[in-house]
Design goal:
The complex is a heterodimer of chains A (about 110) and B (about 120). Chain A contains no helices and 12 strands. With about 110 residues, chain A is mostly beta strands. Chain B has about 120 residues and is mainly β. Chain B is about 0% helix and about 50% strand. Classes of the chains: A mainly beta (about 110), B mainly beta (about 120).
Chain lengths: ~110, ~120
């Protein structure tokens, strides 16, 4: 079946540190891949996406590359800020015109000044 | 567009009472999803609709849960009777379309959620 696995958190970094949050997936065919971010007390917001192999999604300094050979979509940012503290969710949308999203368990990021 | 609108934002109710959560999707979106978020189980898809028709309700935990979408601009999630273990944040999301055949879909847009506490 389709599934998403994220690295366990929490991840605690100092401001300006490099961030990597690992995400791997299991799916048949060509899913679309997403990273969502959830700030405290809010809903999920789309951070970036990629719809085919080797695509790189990017937004607000965050990047992730769709790697079909390793079934991965790792999230990276070169220099994190305190305002990046949030929960990050990796998700996939399976092929087959269903429209639904399958989420990983979420990774909490805490950035300290 | 105002985005996906959920109401109420917070609900506290006593065990055994009926609870109704409401959602207004983004106009023109074909898909509507109800998710539940808890610390223990993370984000779970409960049910989703396509053009107001329920497509997959396999995530609905029990018969106490029901969802309706009477028209393209409104959906409800009802719990009757409610139990303390139903306490969670419930999110509604909508999506404009899916991708080309054989490819994955497009992103979903989430509401702010309803925090439900059953005491």
């Amino acid at each position: 079946g389709n599934s998403v696995t994220q690295m366990e958190g929490p991840v605690t970094l100092s401001e300006e540190a490099f961030l990597t949050i690992n995400c791997t997936y299991t799916a048949t065919g060509y899913p679309s891949l997403f990273w969502y971010v959830q700030y405290p007390g809010e809903g999920l917001q789309l951070l970036l996406k990629a719809t085919k192999a080797d695509d790189k999604g990017s937004n607000k300094g965050f990047e992730a590359t769709y790697r079909k050979e390793t079934t991965s979509f790792h999230l990276e940012k070169g220099s994190v800020q305190v305002s990046d503290s949030a929960v990050y969710f990796c998700a996939l949308s399976p092929p087959g015109n269903t429209g639904k999203l399958i989420f990983g368990q979420g990774t909490t990021l805490q950035v300290k000044p | 567009d105002a985005g996906v609108i959920q109401s109420p934002r917070h609900e506290v109710t006593e065990m055994g009472q009926e609870v109704t959560l409401r959602c207004k999707p983004i106009s023109g979106h074909d898909y509507l999803f109800w998710y539940r978020q808890t610390m223990m189980r993370g984000l779970e898809l409960l049910i989703y609709f396509n053009n107001n028709v329920p497509i997959d309700d396999s995530g609905m935990p029990e018969d106490r849960f029901s969802a309706k979408m009477p028209n393209a601009s409104f959906s409800t999630l009802k719990i009757q009777p409610s139990e303390p273990r139903d306490s969670a944040v419930y999110f509604c999301a909508s999506s404009p379309r899916v991708g080309r055949r054989g490819r994955g879909g497009t992103e979903a847009f989430f509401g702010q959620g309803t925090r439900l506490t059953v005491v």
